[in-house]
Amino acid sequence: MLDVSALLDDTTFCTLFTVLRLTESVNDKGRAVYEEGHFPMTGTVQPATARELDRLPEGERDKETLTIYTREPLHVGNLADGTAADCVLYNGARYTVAAVETWPGYTRALAQKELDNA
Hints:
The chain is 3% helix and 48% strand.
């Protein structure tokens, strides 16, 4: 396998994007409070290949999907744990992280474009 982690330090190949992540805290009344944090990140962003799309469920393969390589971890939501997936803001659109693979030195994620509610 090709080690792409060195490219993640090269500004020629990297781009800036924003990750939106819900964080949970407890207020003074003992209730859960959710806040959306904004985290700037850099990495390589490219369209997902047909082979990468095969990793997604059948009904999810027709959505615009990006492959993101970054040194920072990205998170997939887990319904059982009550955690939300990270969202990525890129080129004016919002993408939800659908799959993540962690490798030594970097993370590869598939993120799907959210539908516009306009």
